Amino acid sequence: MQAASMGTKAFSILFFCLITAATTALGTQEPADPNETALPFGPVTGLLSVDMRQKSDGLLVTLTLDGPTRYRTGRLLSPPRFYVDLESCELALDPSALPSTSGVRVRASQFTVSPPVVRVVLDLDSNWTLPRQLTPSPSDEVRFFVPRRASAPAQEKTPISALSEKQWRTNPNSSSPNGGTGFTVGAQKSCAQEELFSLTKALPHPMRQLVKRIAENSTPYRFGGDGLDGIDCSGFTCLLFSAVGIQLPHSAAEQFQMGTPIDASDLKPGDLVFFGVEGRPTHVGVALGGERFLHVSSARNGLTVTPLNAPYYAKRFMGAKRLLNSETNQGKNASAQR
Questions:
Q1: Which position among 205, 233, 238, 250 bears the catalytic label?
Q2: 31 secondary structure, DSSP code
Q3: Dist. CA 175–CA 62, nearest whole Å
Q4: Residues 6+ apart with CB under 8 A from 228
Q5: What are the residue boundaries of the structural domains of the chain, listed by start?
Q6: Catalytic: 283?
Q7: Please, which residues bridge with residue 83 across strands?
Q8: What's the confidence (pLDDT) of residue 197?
Q9: What is d(CA 33, CA 29) in angstroms, rounded to the nearest whole number?
Q10: What is the enclosing helix (H) or strand (E) of 44?
Q11: How confident is the model at residue 269 (pLDDT cuts 50, 70, 90)?
Q12: Tens digits of residue pLDDT in 290-335
């Protein structure tokens, strides 16, 4: 009886060792698809913009995020594609309006929701080779270079404007796709401003004029700023509403306590829209209509127009408040709305 018990015990130990060894061996194998690897996910970040800049021997592609983000790259065949998976990330841009050039098309999607992963794909024709990664992971600015094949005809070295993303940089310290500062230069700058002013056409005239001054002044993002020398998100709304005689506190959380609550389905141009985490508003912008809002998002983006249904913002949407009289388009007495 004792011998049988010892035999059973020895078999159990042997079985446990075999299972442990097998698990360890499997854990060291390279998965067929990198997406099968379960990695820890940190705080959720947002993909703010995708820029492409032509070089004489290829393309420089830059993905800008609002915080350090882990990522990994891979390639897909038939047709040839290169992808970047941004972990713990959500879209904060309009994926239907990304830059492209001859032979290279950029696509972005919310690849998975839980955990959140944004996949950026470059569709490449035969004139381009596999991109080279230029920045280590994690990073808040993912850069890679797409070499042109030696046999491919050289193209004119022309910057591909990020204006197609419907985002307008006003920060002179940020890197714009054409190597300049603020808006793109020449005719592109004029076109960009016209489109921006067109999107703000439903705002009161004093607000539109102020947006124009901010854009032409290349006002940079500055935390705590509320003037033409620098603004943050709540500083921008303070400045904007002061143009129509409404004085707002320089705080997204305090602005959230003002005005008339508005359902998202009833948003009108000029309504304040709020975003936050854990029940506290941390970001504010101004609705433009057409499910877009105008805001100052970060030092890299400055003055920006973003879809309200971009996953990064849709998930954080906390509500909207109305301070403008819908009939006269003039400001209400804000203090009376507390």
A1: 233
A2: P
A3: 10
A4: 213, 214, 217, 219
A5: 45-158, 186-337
A6: yes
A7: 74, 121
A8: 81
A9: 11
A10: none
A11: very high
A12: 899 999 877 456 788 889 999 889 989 999 999 997 544 555 444 4
What are 202's two structure tokens? 């439903």
pTM: 0.63
Do 45-158 and 186-337 share a fold?
A: no
Per the residue annotation, which of 17, 89, 191, 283 is the catalytic one? 283
One-letter-per-residue 3-state SS of 166-222: CECCCCCCCCCCCCCCCCCCHHHHHHHHHHHHHHCCCCCHHHHHHHHHHHHCCCCEC
Which residue shows structure tokens 């990522």?
A: 71
pLDDT digits (tens, 9 = 90+) for 126-185: 888 889 989 999 999 999 999 988 865 555 444 433 333 344 444 444 433 322 223 222
- Listed residue (221, 199, 217) closest to 208, CA to CA: 199
- Contact of 170 with 232, CB cutoff 8 Å: no
Q: What is the CATH number of domain 186-337?
A: 3.90.1720.10
- Are the beta carbons of 162 and 91 closer than 8 angstroms? no
Are 321 and 260 contacting, i.e. CB atoms less than 8 angstroms apart? yes
| Burial track 263-281 (b if 16+ CB lie within 10 A, e otherwise) | eeeebebbbbbbbbeeeeb
Cα end-to-end distance, the chain, whole Å = 83
**pLDDT for residue 2:** 52
- C-alpha of 214 from chain center: 21
- Minimum mean pLDDT range among 40-44, 100-104, 241-245, 283-287: 40-44
Distance CA 67, CA 205 (A): 35
3 state SS of 139: strand
Check residue 89 and give its pLDDT.
Answer: 92
CATH number assigned to the domain covering 45-158: 2.60.40.3500
- Tokens found for residue 335: 């203090």
Instruction: Write out the H or E segment, with its range, that includes residue 84.
Output: strand 81-87
Tokens 């032509």 correspond to what residue?
A: 54
